[in-house]
Amino acid sequence: MSYNNLRDVPEKFFKCMGSLEVLNVSHNCISSFSITDGSTLQKLKVINLSYNSLQSLHLKKDALHYLRKLYLQGNDLKQLDQQMFQSLPNIRHLQLQENNLRICSSEENQQDPPGCVSFHSIGSLRFLNISENNLRTLPSKAFENTPLRFLDLSLNPGLDMQKGSLSGLEDSLAHLLLKESNVSSLNTELSSLRSLRHVDLSTNQLDSLPLLNKESSIESLNLQNNNLVTLDQNTMVDLERSLKTLYMGSNPLSCCENLGVLHIVRHSTVTVPDIEMVTCSHQDHSEPVNIGTVTQEMCSGPDAPNYTTVAVVTVVILILLLGLLVKCCHLRRQKHRRSFSA
């Protein structure tokens, strides 16, 4: 039923479809959709309402007991019933990208934006894509008691992730996408997410690595198109234990301030698929240098201390001082003898 210019699908249309498992009415012109009779679509597992013109969506509590996947992307939705997704006891997969939704906090003392939707305490939910929603704030404990494994928050420019916004996902979240959101720093500690495996932070404004530690389990990290000049060596050492794939092209990296990181990349099992795009700035080169060609010698310029030379010069100075001291002592003795003879 997709691509049919449908404007309305009344609930009575489904009266004789008790065995229906998949409903696809995507890419139509539907502005309102309701399921209020729990006996109508008892076996429905998938609803695809993506790319319509939805302004109103009402799903009565427990009317869709077996629904597992709900596709609502591309509707420019501005609000939904606050507890809509809690009323779907077996929902696992939500596609909500390309809308204008707001997220409620799970904390009672917080003032929520009008028309916000709640994502906490949805025990069955595993996959949530809420990218490109013009989200401004991700409140603290937004996903508490919701064991998400996949979360996409990308394409929400200026997103403010409040401290504790990912609280409750410590033991479940494996995939976190936060690309193209103009993020300059992360107020939430990724190191607390013990199951996190894949992180995409590309095309943001990050000038430092997010807070991580040796307990990190991240296997894939995308840092492309940020403002990173140096990659903290201690953080990289902590990541090395689990990291398998690292993307870091299109950053204003410094060649000589990342030698330790370069050594890790070259001598560990970490793969850098975009290594040909990873460049750095060097004082002796007017153009960016591919980081794969950087050597220790390139960073031992004329101003760098030559420890061998320093040692030789120090020894020579000490010998001269010793000689001068001996000469002074000799002159004093001679003077003393002359005085005694007189």
Overall outline = elongated
Proportion in β-strands: 5-15%
Q: State the separation between the terminal residues, measured CA to CA.
A: 128 Å
Which class best fits the helix and strand makeup?
Answer: alpha/beta
Arithmetic mean of pLDDT:
89
The sequence of SSEs as H and E is EEEEEEEEEEEEEHEEHEEH
What strand order characterises the main sheet? 1-3-5-6-7-9-11-12-13-14
Low-confidence region ranges: 303-308
Q: Which range best describes the helical content: under 10%, 10-25%, 25-40%, 40-55%, 55-70% or over 70%?
A: 10-25%
How many whole angstroms does the radius of gyration measure? 32 Å
Annotation field: number of helices: 3
Largest sheet: 10 strands, parallel
Annotation, overall tally of beta strands = 17
Protein name: LRRCT domain-containing protein
Pfam family, one: LRR_8
Keywords: Leucine-rich repeat, Membrane, Repeat, Transmembrane, Transmembrane helix
Could you explain how this protein is built, in words?
The protein is elongated. A ten-stranded parallel sheet has the order 1-3-5-6-7-9-11-12-13-14, with no helix packed on it. The protein has a three-stranded mixed sheet with strand order 15-16-17, with no helix packed on it. It has a domain at 225-328. The chain has helices spanning 233-240, 259-267, 307-341; strands spanning 22-24, 32-35, 46-48, 56-59, 69-71, 93-95, 127-129, 137-138, 150-152, 160-161, 175-177, 198-200, 220-222, 245-247, 253-254, 279-281, 289-290. The longest helix is centred in the last third of the chain and has 35 residues, at 307-341. The chain is of the alpha/beta class and 342 residues long. Mean pLDDT is 89; it is low at 303-308. The chain is built from three helices and 17 strands. The chain crosses the membrane at residues 307-329.
